[in-house]
UniProtKB/TrEMBL annotation:
GO terms for molecular function: hydrolase activity. This is Glycoside hydrolase family 48 protein. Residues 844-996 form the CBM3 domain. Signal peptide: none annotated. Residues 751-841 form the Fibronectin type-III domain. Transmembrane segments: none annotated. The keyword Signal applies. Keywords: Carbohydrate metabolism, Cellulose degradation, Glycosidase, Hydrolase, Polysaccharide degradation, Signal. The keyword Lyase does not apply. It holds the Pfam family CBM_3.
Length: 996
């Protein structure tokens, strides 16, 4: 057997000649020529994009939600193909980013984000439906009640013992101050898109899509052992009076009705990563970029131990409650979760992080975007940027710590050994107090044996390496760590990837050399192959041996000579292939950005990426790129292994009783006392699936229960997973963009588009103008007229998207437009705006003062929020029943409105609000909210203040306001400040401030 088709690090003479050919001809792109026509890769990206978005192909539901897969009979992370995940949404963002890059059409990216916000982020997105209805009751000093994790599902429910008091949540107050509330702006990870389970969307019944959850019972609970249940559980389903909660946790009393959501941190980080690239590729709508920043702000909960215990404090089995950032491991853990009560008595909420950290969930690009000014997405909260900056370096150290001697990345770490804060075993390797775990989070199958868990995160390291090299940062420690990790990983992985040849392996999946010996690691393995034109092969699984050295900093790290990987199971997973190609592509482009030309290994990585892309296209079946795959695990559809404790019986959304009568006793050695049911016992609707009978027939004729093998071959399925198709589509696009210079690369320049979002804010003898940047603009011309529609006179040429016009006369209305220019030409004019400067009136300053604090940084959402405080600086008491406050604003669509006082130190029941439409609109105001105080508010003594008065209001149809420029609104005042533009009245007379 020979090694044909293998791309080696030490290139042969033939390979060298091939590379020289591509360098001179531009086939690979070393010369970066730009053809007049679209490249093969660009064409294939757009074709795959069309296949994914074609309604007849079935990737999206009637509500526009991407399914996990076109096919329905499937059990992997989602246990039904027409569910979806937050992962799918994050990939959708990436797809639309690159579509926007090629077409200039960014509307589809915004549509995708809107759909995500509507169906996957459980917030009130403007339809009046509160999907986190009691989060305001959350107590950050007591985030959650402790319950231990166990090794087997049979040991559940776990008692809510509170054995270890939770630490304090240090983020909640900061997030409230920034956004006006603490409703978590993150995706729940799992959605029953077509309500297949039948639970229904309790808190938003107009949506077919329903929030559900699965894994709740420890590291051994696989998808085959999980019980899919509603995330909004009012006990309609499940056990009478208990719902599904009593399967997972045990309380002294019957569990209360509740809502609860779980976030997969890697998905939200990928969405932020996509928005970073959108910004880099010319997207400039601040509304959606701010949403990505907000998501990143809340994503910091993924940096915290599950119960906010101090990191490393449980090494001896005695955890200590955290009191701030000492409970943060500054890595992306497996999840964060939050929830609260439903119905009467439901005035409570909780929040947890996660103690287990997997290498596959880290995202250095998102961390860079959220921390570095050049990343451009630093969130608004006071400590968010610093947190993400710490996290960025910590993740790079984490990968360096976990990199095996060969180059693959080992599993991860935990702050809670066995999920119960047990003492670390003697000799455990540690990282900033965390204990090494080769398979963190789950063990069936081991969480770090899938090659996809290598390609996903390391591709992000390749991106970061490319970003820093492109920015000229080639000396920082962050760059050195990124370069070391990605270079060594690429070096290792290419030894096990084949194009147009098939590697030899044995019945247990081990690669073989030419003598038929198993290849059990080491560098430069000699894998035997046979010719196989048109095929690609990449690894599927890994085995781990040894452990990393305990971490003492990058300068002390010596390379983990005691940590090794055995690479196994050559396979043809097209989704993983897409991620792998992107890792190769970004690495290749990074070597050129760093060195001015491709290095030897960089050139080989780029050539391998090109060959894999060309080969993969032959697997396009008109719907997408897919390959039939054997499913050895599908015998588990029929085995009975879903545990129900003794005495637990309830109703399921599909109309059946759980666990049903067709059960077997549980295994006492697993620690439980109950019964096991099968997948089809729990989910009887699966028997109606069009592929079910074929699977039954295959099971009956091929599965051998004695040998536990498929005698006549395992069942095969061809799946069109949404994320896999996007991974392949974006692989073509990224190769074209980075290697061919496609799309946004060295193409013929064009004149910029007209500036968008022009705003004019009048002042005293001045008008302040601002607008969004226009892609490709080198300068902007500001034009003015005193007549609407012009003619306009040029008054300034500037290079930044802002200008202050000081040559104006008060009480005169001015009309403005702006155009953008570059060397090619000038854009059309922007939309016209007007402003009327006026002399600044003198505010009234009496013995009462109004202090104001903005809690609403999102100026375009569906609520207006503010915190107010009245201070008596005089010598006489003032009855608050004689005082009124006016908050001036624009209604932005005249609708009925509702007022709420969420909290007042003087009693929220003593605070009322009424809405007054102004007979003549003024700049920044066509309405005002008048706040009054009842007799119960009492008297304000000299030198005293009212304390916090937290108010908000909304339109009854929950349509959005636009607070930008509102008279009484100032988003910059995030701490209490005297504010003239919220006037006070005593007995009807202006006593403080000014009116518009």
């Amino acid at each position: 057997m020979t090694r044909t088709g293998k791309f080696r690090k030490s290139a042969s003479i033939l390979m060298t000649m091939a590379l020289l050919f591509t360098m001179t001809t531009g086939v690979f792109g070393f010369g970066t020529p730009k053809a007049s026509a679209a490249s093969v890769e660009e064409t294939r990206f757009l074709q795959l994009y069309s296949q994914i978005k074609d309604p007849s192909n079935g990737y999206f539901s009637a509500e526009g939600i991407p399914y996990h897969s076109i096919e329905t009979l499937m059990s992997e992370a989602p246990d039904y193909g027409h569910m979806t995940t937050s992962e799918a949404y994050s990939y959708w963002m990436w797809l639309e980013v690159l579509y926007g890059h090629y077409t200039g059409d960014w509307n589809k990216l915004e549509d995708a984000w809107d759909n995500m916000e509507k169906y996957m982020i459980p917030i009130n997105e403007g339809d009046g439906k509160e999907e986190q209805p009691t989060m305001s009751n959350y107590n950050p000093n007591s985030p959650a009640t402790y319950a231990a994790e166990y090794g087997q599902p049979d040991k559940y429910p776990s008692s809510l013992t509170g054995q270890y008091s939770a630490g304090k949540d240090p983020l909640d107050a900061e997030l409230k101050a920034t956004y006006g509330n603490n409703q978590t702006y993150l995706m729940h990870w799992l959605l029953d898109v077509d309500n297949w389970y039948g639970f229904g969307n309790l808190l938003n019944p107009s949506h077919t899509a329903t929030y559900v959850n699965t894994f709740q019972r420890g590291e051994q609970e696989s998808v085959w052992e999980a019980i899919t249940h509603p995330s909004q559980d009012n006990k309609t389903f499940g056990k009478t009076g208990e719902g599904f909660m009593s399967l997972f946790t045990k309380e002294n009393n019957a569990p209360a009705a509740q809502w609860r959501y779980t976030n997969a941190t890697d998905a939200d980080a990928r969405a932020v990563q996509a928005m970073y690239w959108a910004k880099e590729l010319g997207y400039n709508n601040e509304v959606y970029l701010k949403k990505a920043e907000k998501m990143g702000d809340y994503l910091r909960y993924g940096m915290y131990d599950k119960y906010f215990q101090q990191i490393g404090s449980a090494a001896d089995g005695s955890p200590a409650a955290g009191n701030g950032k000492d409970a943060s491991h500054f890595l992306m853990s497996w999840y964060t979760a939050w929830g609260g009560g439903l119905g009467q008595g439901g005035n409570w909420a909780w929040r947890i992080g996660a103690s287990h950290v997997h290498q596959g969930y880290q995202n250095v690009v998102a961390s860079y975007a959220l921390s570095d000014p050049d990343g451009g997405l630093i969130p608004d909260s006071a400590t968010a940027g610093q947190d993400w900056n710490t996290t960025l370096k910590r993740q790079l150290e984490f990968y360096t710590w976990l990199q095996s001697a060969e180059g693959a990345i080992a599993g991860g770490a935990t702050n809670s050994w066995d999920g119960a804060y047990k003492a670390y075993p003697a000799g455990t390797s540690t990282f900033y107090g965390l204990a090494y775990d080769d398979a963190p989070v789950y063990h069936d199958p081991p969480s770090n044996n899938w090659f996809g868990m290598q390609a996903w995160p390391v591709e992000r390291i390749a991106e970061y390496y490319y970003i820093l090299a492109s920015n000229g940062d080639t000396s920082s420690e962050n760059f050195q760590m990124a370069k070391q990790v990605i270079s060594k990983w690429i070096d290792w992985s290419m030894d096990y990837v084949f194009v147009n040849s098939r590697p030899s392996s044995d019945s247990e999946g081990y690669y073989l050399d030419a003598q038929g010996n198993r290849v059990l690691g080491g560098t430069n393995p000699q894998i035997a192959t046979v010719a196989a034109p048109g095929e690609f092969w990449i690894p599927s699984n890994l085995e781990w041996q040894g452990k990393p050295d305990s971490w003492n900093g990058y300068s002390s790290h010596t390379g983990n000579s005691g940590l090794h990987v055995v690479t196994k199971n050559p396979g043809q997973d097209v989704g993983v292939l897409g991620s792998y190609i992107k890792a190769l592509t970004f690495f290749a482009a990074g070597t050129k950005a760093e060195n001015g030309s491709y290095t030897t290994i960089g050139g080989q990585a780029g050539q391998l990426a090109k060959s894999l892309l060309d080969t993969a296209w032959s697997y396009n079946d008109g719907i997408g790129i897919a390959k039939a795959e054997p499913r050895d695990d599908y015998y588990r559809y029929f085995t009975k292994e879903i545990y129900f404790p003794s005495g637990w019986s309830g109703t399921y959304g599909q109309g059946n009783t759980l666990p049903g009568s067709n059960t077997v006793p549980s295994d006492p050695s697993k620690g439980g006392n109950g019964v096991y049911a099968s997948y089809s016992d729990v989910r009887p609707k699966i028997k109606n699936d069009p592929s079910w009978q074929a699977l039954v027939d295959k099971y009956n004729t091929s599965w051998n229960p004695q040998t536990k093998k498929w005698d006549n071959g395992a069942p095969q399925f061809t799946y069109h997973r949404f994320w896999s198709q996007v991974d392949m589509a974006t692989a073509y696009a990224e190769y074209d963009r980075l290697i061919n210079g496609g799309g946004g690369g060295p193409v013929d320049p064009v004149a910029p588009k007209a500036p968008a979002n022009l705003k004019a804010t009048p002042g005293d003898a001045k008008v302040q103008l601002s607008w969004s940047k226009s892609t490709g603009a080198e300068s902007y011309t500001v034009k003015r007229s005193i007549t609407s529609g012009g003619p306009y006179a040029n008054i300034a040429t500037v290079t930044e998207p802002a200008y202050t016009d000081l040559n104006v006369v008060n009480d005169t209305t001015y009309y403005y437009v702006v155009s953008a220019s570059n060397a090619v030409g000038t854009s059309p004019d922007s939309a016209e705006v007007s402003a009327k400067p006026t002399a600044t009136p003198t505010p009234v300053h009496g013995n009462l003062k109004l202090q104001y604090r903005s809690t609403d940084s999102n100026e375009t959402d569906n609520q207006v929020r503010a915190n107010l405080k009245i201070v008596n600086t005089g010598t006489e008491p003032v009855s608050l029943s004689n005082v009124k406050v006016r908050y001036y604003y624009t209604v932005d669509g005249d609708k009925a409105q509702e007022f709420y006082c969420d909290y007042a130190a003087i009693g929220s029941g003593n605070v009322t609000g009424s809405f007054v439409k102004m007979p003549n609109a003024k700049p920044g105001a066509d309405y005002y909210l008048e706040i009054s105080f009842g007799s119960g508010a009492g008297t304000l003594a000299p030198g005293a203040d009212t304390g916090d008065i937290q108010i908000r209001f909304n339109k009854t149809d929950w349509s959005n306001y636009n607070e930008a420029g509102d008279f009484s609104h100032d988003a910059t005042k995030t701490s209490y400040t005297e504010w003239d533009k919220v006037p006070l009245y005593v007995k009807g007379t202006l006593a403080w401030g000014l009116e518009p």
